[in-house]
Structures are given as structure tokens and as C-alpha cells.
Amino acid sequence: MKNKHGFELAMSTLIVIILGVVVLIGLILAFNGSIKVFKSSTKPFYDTTQSSSIKQACSLACENTDKLTFCCRKYKIDELEIGCSDSRLDVDCPSMTCDGVC
Prior knowledge:
The protein has 102 residues and is mainly α. It contains two helices and two strands.
């Protein structure tokens, strides 16, 4: 009879060490910048959703002739303050004049 307990112990230890190294590499990558890659891939979707909701709020302010919201309210997108009259939002409100409101 051969004694195989020594070999089985070495194989299980080797598998545990390999799994530990893989988990350690995964943690290092996660905390070292791979989160930035994930964030940059989801950021355009978030910005699109956020800007469309701001555009909708500005359109509603225009429809209701809410001058305070349309003219004075500033919304933040990526540390930029944008108002409803900003051309990037593409909200057309010819009936709204913002002279002397704010």
C-alpha cells in the first residue's frame, strides 16, 4: 500500500494558494484603477439620463411659464452649473424672457 496523504495535502494546498493569489490580484486591480474603467463606461449613460431629466424639467418650466425655475435655477452636471437657457440642453422657449428675473 502506498501512502497518498502527503500528495493530497500538497495538491489541496497548491489549489488554495493559487486561488488566494487570484483573489489578491483581483483586489489589487479593483482598488488600483479598474473601478475607474467601470465608472467611465457607465458615466455616459448617467450623464444622458441626468441631462434628459434636466431638459424635461426645463421644458415643464417653459410650458408653465415658471420664470424663476427657467431663468434662475442652475443644475449641476459634472461640476458644471447649467441653466435652462443653456444651448447644450436644446430647450426652445421663445415665450420666456429672463430679463431682470433673478
